[in-house]
Write a structure and sequence with these properties.
By secondary structure, the chain is an alpha/beta fold. The chain has two domains: about 1-85 and about 235-425, Zn peptidases (Aminopeptidase), CATH 3.40.630.10; about 85-215, Aminopeptidase i, Domain 2. The protein is built from ten helices and 20 strands. A nine-stranded mixed β-sheet has the order 1-2-3-13-4-14-18-16-17, with helices on both faces. It has a six-stranded antiparallel β-sheet with strand order 8-7-10-5-6-9.
């Protein structure tokens, strides 16, 4: 099971270089399992035993499996994750022609570790909006092959490099795509039009706009002398999306279950398709009974907010509270913060810990050092919007927000096992 899950995640990461592609990959897997797509602009007809999914902005997705019991009496079992990761996004007018090179201006999306982006074989993917035959259309593209690089400055020209230096995001990050002849100018939109034709056979009258991100072309892999680690891009948080999907597809049909994977978590979730927007609540109100029964349904429900946790790094053990250093391959981590950066409370933590013990899955706890800041997740957002009981958990990870992150190769299987059990729980707290 572990080998198959890890390979499945590697394949999923390869097809998911952007939130748009991740959402499409999730939708394809759901459809293959018999889930029906619902259009938010149409009337919905849902019934017990139905399997549905909804997408918004092509970058967020909610999958629903309705069980046999009334929602007002049994509630929903929800797993939440996010589809976005820190990256470099192309600016609207990106062309830079300098010293015989064609470069693109980029904007940093989210809290990215920037040093690892240098000297990588980069490709480009995302969504392009264009005009064809008088209509405005959008399509996903992915160059797949390495088309760009951000070369480092040689040590001979920066003798202080190994002492650390602040990277200027405006000047030092534009990737190089090609060399130019004297006086030559390249238009980025022409390149996108060519890619639309090459990838989809589309002849665009004009490329109107785009949302495109650079990504590392190196594939994820199981690594280590004994294969103990899983290395790859966007483990935060596509690992949780994939785990939630596998658990949903493996779960039995008695209980009502939801998987919600939203965009824009890395920049605050405040958007029409983010966790701090109306998407999840709007979907729930259309699927669940109205009025008093809706409130009862929510209070019978529970959400597991799954987002990666900081593993105890052997070279930086002082960055952790001595009693709360999660180990890679030590199982899922319950994330706790007294200031509500995580939504966990004693009841939801106790429920998740009990579930892990029942399923013989190792479980850990994480609390940040009292003298350090703490990140957050969609957990507190969902809890405050819906009033739903929530536990924040995640797989321990190294190098979070790097272009290449590291997790334990055993932990995905641990997470899938406990989430599958959660989806099948007849009794919540």
């Amino acid at each position: 099971m572990r080998t198959e899950l890890n390979q499945g995640l590697i394949d999923f990461l390869k097809t998911s270089p952007t939130p748009f592609h991740a959402t499409r990959s999730l939708a394809q897997r759901l459809e293959a399992a018999g889930y029906q797509r619902l259009d938010e602009r149409e009337v919905w007809r849902s019934e017990g035993g139905g399997r549905f999914y909804i997408t918004r902005n092509d970058s967020s997705i909610i999958a629903i499996k309705l069980g046999k019991r009334p929602l007002a009496d049994s509630g929903m079992r929800m797993v939440g994750a996010h589809t976005d990761s820190p990256c470099l996004r192309v600016k609207p007018n990106p062309e830079l022609h300098q010293q015989g090179f064609w470069q693109l201006g980029v904007e940093v999306y989210g809290g990215a570790l920037l040093n690892p982006w240098f000297d990588r074989d980069l490709s480009l993917a995302g969504r392009v909006t264009y005009r064809a035959a008088g209509k405005v259309e959008s399509q996903l593209i992915d160059f797949q092959r390495p088309i760009a690089v951000i070369p480092n400055l040689a040590i001979h020209l920066n003798r202080e490099a190994n002492k650390g230096w602040e990277i200027n995001k405006q000047i030092e990050l534009p990737p190089i795509l090609a060399t130019l002849a004297a006086g030559e100018q390249r238009d980025f939109r022409d390149l996108l039009a060519e890619q639309l034709s090459h990838e989809h056979g589309i002849t665009a009258d004009a490329v109107l706009d785009y949302e495109l991100s650079f990504y590392d072309t190196q594939s994820a892999a199981v690594i280590g002398l004994e294969g103990d680690f899983l290395s790859g891009a966007r483990l935060d948080n596509l690992l949780s999306c994939y785990a939630g999907l596998q658990a949903l597809l493996s779960s039995k049909n008695e209980e009502s279950c939801i998987l919600v994977c939203t965009d824009h978590e890395e920049v605050g979730s405040r958007s029409a398709c983010g966790a701090d927007g109306p998407m999840l609540e709007q979907v729930l109100r259309r699927l669940m009974p109205a009025g008093d029964a809706y409130a009862r349904s929510i209070q019978h429900s529970l959400m597991v907010s799954a987002d990666n946790a900081h593993g105890l790094h052997p070279n930086y053990i002082d960055k952790h509270d001595a009693n709360h250093g999660p180990l890679l391959n030590g199982g899922p981590v319950i994330k706790i913060n007294s200031n509500q950066r995580y939504a966990t409370n004693s009841e939801t933590a106790g429920f998740f810990r009990h579930l892990c013990l029942t399923e013989e899955v190792p479980v850990q706890s994480f609390v940040t050092r009292s003298d350090m800041g703490c990140g957050s997740t969609i957990g507190p957002i969902a809890a405050s919007h819906l009033g739903i009981r929530t536990v924040d958990i995640g797989v321990p990870t190294f190098a979070m927000h790097s272009i290449r992150e590291l997790a334990g190769s055993h932990d995905l299987a641990h997470l899938v096992k406990v989430l599958t059990a959660f989806y099948g729980c007849s009794e919540l707290i």
